Fold this protein.
Amino acid sequence: MSSSFTLRAKGWRSRARFFACVRTAGLGVNIRAPIQIPGVTFQLLKPADFEMLHNWLCRPHVGEWWGHPAALAEVEINYLPMTRPESTTRGYIASLERRPVGFVQSYIVLGSGDGWWPGETDPGARGIDQFLAHPEDLGRGLGSTVIRAFVAELFRDPLVTKVQADPSPNNERAIRSYLRAGFERQGEIETPDGPAVLMIAMRPHPEKRP
């Protein structure tokens, strides 16, 4: 596993756990009733979002898998590249009824480099990573709803053939969310970040009309 945020074509995700960060106390939550979702929207990540993103990454339920940034400047350094037009990785703020609820990033799998997906030959493959920002939203079905909505947006591009994710084998919440969103578990793999579960959602076949 990485010990800090690292720049790579796959994205700027790191699963480090050893950053100095002010943690918020009392964030444990119980299982809640399913939330009713009228719709989720996505806005491209912009520099004005970095302070909010830093705050989210400092929360224990996020930093456990994404790493705790030591300072806002570290987030700015590592996430600014994905806001540039030439980047093959894009970050998005997911919102529910105008309330920011999480972060999603997508990337082109082919040619990721740095040891990521060396065997990929499909130019239409896209990868995603995501997290929910607020502990009170966990366990209510929002994660799978965000994933499902985002994948639907990716498939609006006719060139996209499949969407994949690679959560840690220990991140059972993320694995369940991907499964509920229609991903199929392909098995455990080894990545530059360590062991991961490869999960794939294929482009739906259009229904044949009689």
Observations:
- The longest helix spans residues 142-154.
- Helices lie at 50-57, 60-66, 72-79, 142-154, 172-180.
- The chain has five helices and seven strands.
- Residues 91 and 164 are 16 Å apart (CA to CA).
